[in-house]
Specification:
alpha+beta; 2 helices; 198 residues; 4-stranded antiparallel beta sheet
Length: 198
C-alpha cells in the first residue's frame, strides 16, 4: 500500500515543479502601470569644450553651440546614453569595464623591470525617475561617470576624471536642457532631452 502513496506524492511534486518552471514569476510580480502613465525616452550627452572663452558663455550660448556642433572642432562629445522610462518607475543604465593600468615598475639587478598593475572600474551609471507635471516632466536624475583622462606611461598611471550630477529638474518635453557643467580642465557639460513615446 505504501508504493502507490509514494508514487502519488512524487507525481504531485513533479507537477508543481513543472508549473514553477513554466511560470517562474507569480502573477502580480511586476507592478502594474497606473492609469494615465506616460512612457519617455531620455537622451543624455556629456561633452567637452576646448575653447578658453567658454567659461563666459551663457546657458543659451552653450546649448546653441551644441546644436551647431557639426564642424565645430572645439566641441567633443564624450558619451551619449539613451534610456526609456515609464512614469513613476526607476530606470537605470550601467555601462563600464575593468581596466588595468601601470602604476610603476620594479627594477632589480637580476631581472628586467617589472610593471606594477592596478585594476580600476571605469564607466557610466545613470538612474532616473520621470513623472508628468502639468504638461512638463519632473525628472529625478543621478548621473555618474569615471574615465581616464590620458593614456599615462609605464612609470605613472593616467589621471582619472569623475563627473557626477544629482538633480531634480522640471523639463519641457522635446526641449534640450543643460543639467550642469564645469569650466575646470578637462571641461565637462551634461545636457538632456525628454521625448514622449507614443
Amino acid at each position: 500500500m505504501r508504493k502507490p502513496v509514494v508514487l502519488l506524492a512524487l507525481i504531485v511534486c513533479l507537477g508543481n515543479f513543472a508549473l514553477a518552471v513554466e511560470d517562474p514569476k507569480p502573477a502580480g510580480f511586476f507592478p502594474r502601470p497606473k492609469a494615465g502613465s506616460e512612457s519617455y525616452l531620455i537622451q543624455l550627452t556629456e561633452f567637452r569644450v576646448n575653447d578658453s572663452a567658454h567659461a563666459r558663455w551663457s546657458t543659451d550660448e552653450i546649448l546653441k553651440r551644441f546644436e551647431r556642433r557639426e564642424g565645430d572642432e572645439t566641441l567633443e562629445i564624450v558619451e551619449t546614453i539613451r534610456v526609456s522610462a515609464l512614469s513613476g518607475h526607476e530606470s537605470m543604465v550601467k555601462v563600464g569595464r575593468q581596466a588595468r593600468v601601470a602604476v610603476g615598475a620594479i627594477t632589480t639587478p637580476a631581472r628586467a623591470p617589472t610593471r606594477q598593475m592596478e585594476s580600476h572600474s571605469v564607466g557610466t551609471i545613470v538612474s532616473l525617475i520621470a513623472e508628468p507635471a502639468d504638461g512638463m516632466v519632473l525628472l529625478k536624475l543621478n548621473y555618474s561617470s569615471s574615465r581616464f583622462d590620458e593614456k599615462g606611461t609605464d612609470e605613472s598611471p593616467p589621471d582619472m576624471v569623475t563627473v557626477q550630477y544629482d538633480a531634480t529638474l522640471l523639463i519641457d518635453v522635446g526641449r534640450t536642457t543643460l543639467v550642469g557643467g564645469s569650466s575646470a580642465a578637462p571641461t565637462s557639460y551634461l545636457i538632456l532631452s525628454v521625448d514622449r513615446v507614443r
